[in-house]
Design brief:
The chain is α+β, with helices and mostly antiparallel strands. The protein has a domain of 76 residues. The protein is built from two helices and three strands.
Length: 133
């Protein structure tokens, strides 16, 4: 049985302006899709959206007010690398291959040194206009 870890983020309340999208419901849907896609890049799977009540005290002397907050719930499997490693260890071992035969020895030839930079010439640094006498 798979065990999961969960991540909960607040659903976006305000919509950002998007080029080419004018209607408010379409902008909201676009921003919600961006929030979900941002989490799926981290390996999280979108599970559901929940609307939960919270108590908030709007001021110092005022009484508590019940408000509702919408959150997005994501999940991913725990210990995925450990499970993959355990599965590879329990797999049947591959048949042993014979050791490769060593290649015949090749005579070492003396290679000429490579010249990467040209030989320096007796000229000064070129910082200004060129003047050759």
């Amino acid at each position: 049985m798979a065990s999961y870890e969960y991540k909960v983020i607040a659903a976006p309340r305000k919509t950002k302006k998007v080029k080419g999208v004018k209607a408010l419901p379409e902008r909201f849907a676009h921003n919600l899709a961006e929030a979900i896609n941002a989490e799926t890049f981290g390996g999280w799977e979108y599970l559901r959206a929940e609307t939960l009540p919270i108590e908030e005290k709007p001021g110092f002397m005022k009484s508590k007010v019940e408000m509702f907050q919408t959150v997005l719930v994501f999940r991913r499997e725990k210990d995925v690398p450990a499970r993959a490693q355990a599965q590879t260890q329990t797999a049947a071992p591959a048949p042993a291959e014979p050791a490769p035969t060593p290649a015949p020895a090749i005579e070492a030839r003396e290679a000429a040194p490579l010249a990467l930079d040209p030989e320096p010439q007796d000229e000064g640094p070129r910082l200004g206009p060129v003047s050759r006498d």
